[in-house]
Amino acid sequence: MSLLDSLTEALRVLPGVGPKSAQRMVYHLLQRNREGAARLSAALASALADIRHCGRCNNFTEAEICERCLNLARDASQLCVVEMPSDLAVMESTHAYRGLYYVLMGRISPLDGIGPRELKLDKLIARATDGTVQEVILATNFTNEGEATAHYVGEMLRTRGLKVSRIARGVPVGGELEHTDLGTVAQAFVERRGW
Amino acid sequence: MSLLDSLTEALRVLPGVGPKSAQRMVYHLLQRNREGAARLSAALASALADIRHCGRCNNFTEAEICERCLNLARDASQLCVVEMPSDLAVMESTHAYRGLYYVLMGRISPLDGIGPRELKLDKLIARATDGTVQEVILATNFTNEGEATAHYVGEMLRTRGLKVSRIARGVPVGGELEHTDLGTVAQAFVERRGW
């Protein structure tokens, strides 16, 4: 296989990139932006080498434990469970929450072959039952997958004696946190209910 | 800037990738396809190091002169000028043409700041006036930019005493070769007219 074909095929690992757009990308990179292509190659290599999961919140980080988890000013008695780092970012932007997080890095989604095992929920259990966490707030999306995840995780943690709550269904049904206005997300947090 | 942010930004060199989809790509690569990400990083680096422009047809190649230009079975008296490698591939698929090619790697497009100078037409002139080429066939797209390019290149080569033709307007006006059925492209080639 030629280097050109290898690169075209390699670009198809990116979600949403088909054969035509991969080819367009190749021409664009080689013809118009070789510097950008070099930067991308290096950024991928560095990220793969040095980005890992925080030992506590499971978010991406370059350290063993991320800065947010080490921040003593945050309320360690509250643990907010979100699907993705982008959801964590939305919660943070509301300034309604001062506790800590756990990032699932996904959601239960049988169609994509992602069950409880693939989400490695053991790590969440260990984190939530460390003795300092008093309340786990489930902030997964209100999609079918997000709800299923909340039900499963909630059940799992409640049987271990933890107080579990769910952010209020202020977020529109079928909607995703990332695309919701901050006020709605903040209210949903304040109105969380027992789960 | 964190490695995560660097990678997100680096992915935006890809055409059609905005901030949201760059972020989705980062999560996907780091969480679900690290092997693919490593392959992509390596493929980019190899392509940048070893892919260059053929000294004769200007197409991408790993050699000094590409295989097609070295193929003695092809008719060296005909030179077909196309915009992009994908257009060359379409011409080849029609099996209607047995001559050689010149790939402009673009088109005259004032809005994108691409004029005759940026297309490095000197290389085309040198190629077309090497003494063996008898006819130059313009097979740029029938978009405004493609037509402008054909007019400019045609004029330029005709004043140097070359016979210049244009593939027939069988390709729908405003259409692009890449998205046209092979029969239409083949007929357009057969019905090329003096230019």
From TrEMBL, chains A, B:
Recorded name of the encoding gene: recR
Zinc finger (C4-type): 54-69
Sorted UniProt keywords: DNA damage, DNA recombination, DNA repair, Metal-binding, Zinc, Zinc-finger
InterPro entries with a match to the protein in the record: DNA_Rcmb_RecR, Rcmb_RecR, Rcmb_RecR_Znf, TOPRIM_dom, TOPRIM_RecR
Protein family per UniProt: Belongs to the RecR family.
Pfam families: RecR_C (PF21175), RecR_HhH (PF21176), RecR_ZnF (PF02132), Toprim_4 (PF13662)
Entry protein name: Recombination protein RecR
Species this chain originates from: Uliginosibacterium flavum
Domain Toprim as annotated: residue spans: 77-172
Database matches in Gene3D superfamilies: 3.40.1360.10, 6.10.250.240, RecR Domain 1
Function noted in UniProt: May play a role in DNA repair. It seems to be involved in an RecBC-independent recombinational process of DNA repair. It may act with RecF and RecO.
